[in-house]
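PROTOCOL LOG
Step 1. Enter all chains and additional molecules of the complex.
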Amino acid sequence: MKNINVLVTGVGGQGVILASDVIGEAALTAGYDVKKTDTLGMAQRGGSVISHVRIGTKVWSPLIKEGEVDILLAFEKLEAARWSYFLRPEAIAIINNHALPPLSVNLGNERYPGDREITNILEQRSGRIYFVDGINRAKELGNIRTLNMFMLGCVSSFLPLKVNTWKDCISLRLPPGIRQINIAAFDAGRKEIKNAHI
Amino acid sequence: MAKIIKLLSGNEALALGAYHAGVRVAAAYPGTPSTEILESLARFDDIYAEWSTNEKVAMELVIGAAYAGVRSLVSMKHVGLNVASDPFMAASTTGVNAGMVIISADDPGLHSSQGEQDNRHYAKIAKVPMLEPSDSQEAYDLMAYAFDISEKFDTPVLVRTTTRISHSKSVVNINRDRISSELPANFKYDVKKYVMLPAYARLRRPLLEERLVKLAAYAETSSLNRVEWGELHLGVVTSGVAYQYAKEVFPNASFLKLGMTYPLPEKLIHHFAAQVDKLVVIEELDPFLQENIQAMGIKVTGKEFIPRWGELNTGIIEKESHTADLLMETISQPTINIASELPGRPPLLCPGCPHTGIFFVLSSMGQRSTLHSRGKVKKKPKLIITGDIGCYTLATYPPLSAMDTTACMGASIGQALGMEKAGIRDKVIAVIGDSTFLHSGITPLVNAVYNEGKITVIILDNGTTAMTGHQDHPGTGISAQGKQTRAVKLEQLVQGIGVRDIKVVDAFDIKALRTSVRGALDNPELSVIIVRGACAVHVPRRIEPRAVDSEKCNQCGVCLLIGCPAIQMENGRVYIDTTMCIGNACTICQQICPQQAIGPQSEIEAAEAS
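Step 2. Run joint prediction.
Step 3. Record the structure below.
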């Protein structure tokens, strides 16, 4: 099998690392070779976060080559646009339709790109873009912090792993008290993609 | 034992490998990308693991344990080895009495470091063997080799990893149980081995050269170094993470994959070089392997086309190899970074950070903050603020812009004194965190007292080593293994050194902060201000997030100048993200708002409803 390259991006504090960990562990459980690596920068939170996950029969480099991402899973719109140049033609992009303006934008020194601009940037690489409403779906479930499991549900529709494998791996990573709501968020993510028309 | 297969980071694998190899004492000072090694080891309750005050202390502790006949390990980031290099060199001279391993985690690309350096050179300087893993499996496996080599050759062993190895997760087949000697610690008196008087050190000196010869012979046959034969038109010599990238770029070439990169197996390299038409070295950072191989009289290229700085990746090696005519196949069109014009997202101080208040005070007193968007003219900066290493280094960025130098751990105090002695007339302010002060700020403060410095030292005491992920330190009185120990009190320490003007100030009281900085600047003597406030990540409950009263707010933008990520703009109006604000524990924005437009969310909502 050809390797599958998943790039997970977002802003520190959104749960990007946990989500990419679960992708890696689910792939390992399913018997694949896996490598994953995070690029965090130096801060605890608030900065750009990028996680590379590679799945296949044999993975060499932990970093995905520019232009070879098969699936982009972006927790924030600007971060989706920022890493769009990593996409291969016809890659899938799943983007949480949510803006977190950086401080430079709040200070009026820089401008947050408009929705049309972001779509244009992504469409130069691929037309297979799914904008999902992760923040509102997580809010509907009663906990905005389930966003990462919702996003995992979305990406799971495109990976050759069984639903139960995903759910087992999610359960292993979370304390019992919050498992149920996170599994519900995962299911909501799967449903979101199923109902999407592109 | 039953085989267990796990996805482990390089650091977790190094720690588990060391544990299974029977390590009994481990020490470190936190530093990205090395921190998780000691964190992982500290979870085993049948070994002793500590956060030491700094890397030099950690190294010395581990040398002591090795002298006492116990397998020991010390881990640090690349620049940590600079701090620890003195005892490191000494340990090479004396040798050990039980396995001793030093892990140096280098940071190509400077993901979280003040400098990029290739610590492979340290193996050569110290004349010690060096091992380098290429993934987590190798990280786990080679720790067993490292301790064995250390004991067999009576030498400390350097294990060199890099950010991409330490912080990548890959599959590890855990196939060993812990081997641990139950022998009690036992120091064998031997002054000619352990007392490095010149007369005795001179006796040991030739032994280092003999040791290198024996190690080189070991390297010739060790399974740490292996040849992977492929097509013979190209032979690639490589190590570490570069091996993974090179395998993708040259899937059919022959490889000499080195797990032991010092001393090098000269015969093996000659043999490999003789079989292939063209020999190249693919390595990250300096031409370490290349120059050592060239010194053997072997024709080899590498750094003629592979960059000497920054982190490598498959794309860079592919592109440069193509340019150097090593790769004939047409490569995929290089992608253009169409998104490079987008606003950046640099890391920030957290909402509720105890550093924000003091830096806002320094920023305003030093005339640093300006709202460009509102047409204000930037003034000439006042005050010189020498800085140090920690989260607070982020105060260099706008809008705070309140740090003027940063070099290495503890440098702020010496630099400030140096500026004063050079003739800077205004009082120079040094800013340093609590963990950094304990690491290496004490001796320069002693120096400032002794040499009658007039500087002001601000110690930012947030009660943790925050930037590396909240490790404890001597000021917290809790050990790496979670044990309550004795805490060092900063004000007592500073007083004991002989500083007479000491103030302890609440990090969230802007007025008190301003008064104390003014007072210190007016006092012609050396002064220390301890700014105390818990790291925002440690605030247990977030009570009453702040909100903006839209009636009172005149959009002056002053609250934006503290750089709090919770304060945001939407459609030209300032609002506070209540999910991010830590509320009563901070209130800095409320204190500085000229319109008194910020208050507890419940009060603001009640006022707006009425």
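Step 4. Note key features.
The longest strand of chain A covers residues 87-96.
The mean pLDDT of chain A is 93.
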